[in-house]
Amino acid sequence: MRSGKVMTSEGGRQGVRVGAGIVAVLAGVGLGAIAIGVAVTTSERVAAAQSATSGNKSSGDGGLAPYLVAAGQGLVTPPDIEDVEHMCALLTSCHDLPFPPSSLPNNEATCVSAIMKDLTSPGAVKYPLVIRECALQANSCADLRSCALRGAAPDFCKGWNKTVGRCDLDGRAINCSHEQIVGVRDCPRGGEQCYVREGQASCVLGPCTAENAENAAATCSASGNRVLKCNGSKLNSVDCAAFGLKCTLDNGRPGCSPQTPACSGDAKRCDGNVAIGCEHGHEVRVDCGAAGLTCNSVPGAVPVGSCMAPPPANAGDKCDPKDPPKCDGATIKYCFAGRKRSYLCRTLGFDKCVKEGNTAHCQ
């Protein structure tokens, strides 16, 4: 839960706005067509984990944040919806964020719904740390921008009026588009090095090896900590250990998973208000009750990931999730899982609510 919010007024970002596509963009890890379902590069995960443990979040377990330790045990605790609302207000409204503009959400309501669905599902054990440690924790546009830059100079792309990938002097992989930073990966923190190929900067472990040759299938490293794949003569990896997870095989396919009992399929079962599902062949327990949700359905309940949102007791609080959001002064009013919600833009220092077609965001 957030505390001590900083009130910072900043205008909304300009340009193309789509749905909650930022998670899909962050899913690119440079391993080609491997469907490993892990969302950020090795270096970004390590950087986020180190950032999380540099303050008061140390876990005493390998330097990982407590929620990463829990993920390694197959345990997911969804965030409060209020924190997701704050995060979505920043993602939909801040400008000059170091992400591709077309990947950022443009609607508070759809952003909240998409993120809550993802973070109440088994796949939350390997959710993008740049979302968890930057977007969910930021109290202002400046906070979010600084965290996502990973120490890179904000003006690094100035003078590069085209799409280009570059390595900075500290070994970060930085991608630019028309003088704007649209991606940063801090390669050295993950034991990797910056590499530019076909105009895109990324992080690699080094040259491919005899064990991981070009065109060979992806494998787990000998330590069981990484997924490895040779691509363009360079060894790409996903660091499962940065999530507190291990590299395992599910039907011969390598990926990151907790060290929990084996499972298969997409079915879930309930243990009280805990939903037990399957992620890459291993059980994951989602604590629905922690987010005010239930595991078992009741009449009128709406699915939220692996959980269920019970209908509001007061009929006046009910709504249709298909209803578009609207502005009421500086407040966004919208429907989440059949229940009316409102978000005051001034909470994070924005001035007003802006309605554009069927979308609404702060500005």
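Second entry:
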Amino acid sequence: MKKSMLLLVMLAATQQAHALSESAADAPGWKQFGNATEGYSYGVYNRADSFTISCHPNKPATINVNIMSVGKYGSQDYQSDFVFEVDGKIFIGHRVLQDQKSFEELWTALRNAKELGVYQREKGSRKFSFPTANIANTLPALGSPGFPCQSQETYDAAVLDEDLANIEPLKEGDVQLRKRGNPYYGKTTWNKYLLDITSRSNRMVITDLKINRGSCTIDPKAKLPFRMGFGGKVTLSLLPEDCNPLEVTVTTLGGEQTLSFDQ
């Protein structure tokens, strides 16, 4: 009898602990997901809408916002930009994680946040609010051991340090250039020529291109630096649209080469 009662008490205690665990998991507010190996995400839901900060090893931090009735937004260039507000202070999605100062300012504001809202376009347009409950306990403090998040600036600096430590001196023949007519000229574009750059170096980082001694530039959609291994290739359109590249100076972390075309 006593043994049966003990088993019932233990079963009841186990069920209660399980119920409390499920209740905590379902509780509103910010939560942390992930692990040290694969990285962490910190996020919150408001019904079907979500606001998430992701921090993965050897990558810059990102923000993703999903508003069911409007669409998806994010901090990366290829995503739709957005504006959000933390206790009255405005942040721009595409800018706030770029430099370390802005990143630290945002992180500090979020850990102390009482109100968090995302605007559909800019301040004054429709606002979508998100809970801030448990945010200070979820987001790790800046500079804490194993802090997993980094700005784009910090990430770029780390990548550059690695490049400089492992870069190969540029040798003759490492840069291969090819000029060709644009097959879409007069159809979907007025860029007359395309420029192919191919690497024959195991590790090449192109930091600058001077085309026709500065009279032409690459399309601004193509952003330097270009990192390429052996056989890596980048294809560039040029400005002005009728630019005929005759001379190209390629500057890399390993040196500089000037190559030319006959016509």
